[in-house]
């Protein structure tokens, strides 16, 4: 029995074999894509772990004019890549990392109440950075402050 050009021994046509190889190619590409995606899913946390944190990249010393910080007022600065609040309080000048320990929201200074407040979930901190209300589990992180002449220096 002579087979024509389009028919194989099992009765299928070459078009069927061509469709099968197209399907195999498509499935191979899909599996390759999923494998690459899985690899990147594992690689991303590894890179984030090895990369230095933002505070290691930022400025490690910030200077402010003492005249720009009247009694009871606060000033927002960027210290080591993160917001920081510098306050001229009743016991002198203090500085804290301006990120709430609850969920990382930016903390604000409330001059009327002389306290730090987190607007996200109602966290409140006193002038020493201690939690006095709301859900934050830990106090604010203090930043070393010194006064050199008419300058306030953070990270001194």
Largest sheet, strands/sense/barrel: 4 strands, antiparallel
What proportion of the residues form beta strands (DSSP E)? 25-35%
Task: Provide the CATH superfamily of the largest domain.
Answer: Rieske [2Fe-2S] iron-sulphur domain
What is the tally of beta strands?
Answer: 11
What is the CATH level 1 assignment of the largest domain? Mainly Beta
Q: Number of helical runs?
A: 2
In short:
This protein is α+β, with helices and mostly antiparallel strands and 156 residues long. It has two helices and eleven strands, in the order ααβββββββββββ.
Highlighted features:
11 strands; Rieske Iron-sulfur Protein; elongated; single chain; about 25% helix; alpha+beta; 4-stranded antiparallel beta sheet; 2 helices
Describe this structure in words.
- There is one protein chain.
- By secondary structure, this protein is an alpha+beta fold.
- It has two domains: 1-51; 55-154, Rieske Iron-sulfur Protein.
- 26% of the residues lie in helices and 30% in strands.
- The protein has two helices and eleven strands.
- The strands form three sheets. Strands 2-3-4-9 form a four-stranded antiparallel β-sheet, with no helix packed on it. A four-stranded antiparallel β-sheet has the order 5-6-7-8, with no helix packed on it. Strands 1-11-10 form a three-stranded antiparallel β-sheet, with no helix packed on it.
- The longest helix is centred in the first third of the chain and has 37 residues, at 14-50.
- The protein is elongated.
- The chain starts with 13 loop residues before the first helix and ends with a strand.
């Amino acid at each position: 029995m002579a087979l024509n050009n389009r028919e194989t021994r099992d009765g299928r046509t070459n078009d069927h074999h061509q469709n099968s190889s197209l399907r195999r190619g498509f499935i191979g590409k899909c599996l390759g894509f999923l494998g690459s995606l899985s690899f990147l899913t594992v690689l991303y946390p590894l890179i984030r772990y090895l990369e230095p944190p933002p505070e290691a990249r930022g400025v490690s010393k910030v200077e402010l004019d003492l005249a720009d910080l009247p009694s009871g007022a606060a000033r927002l600065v960027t210290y080591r890549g993160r917001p920081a609040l510098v306050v001229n309080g009743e016991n002198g000048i203090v500085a804290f990392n301006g990120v709430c320990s609850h969920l990382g929201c930016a903390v604000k200074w409330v001059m009327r109440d002389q306290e730090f407040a987190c607007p996200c979930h109602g966290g409140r901190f006193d002038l020493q950075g201690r939690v006095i209300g709301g859900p934050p589990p830990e106090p604010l992180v203090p930043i070393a402050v010194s006064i050199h002449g008419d300058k306030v220096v953070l990270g001194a």
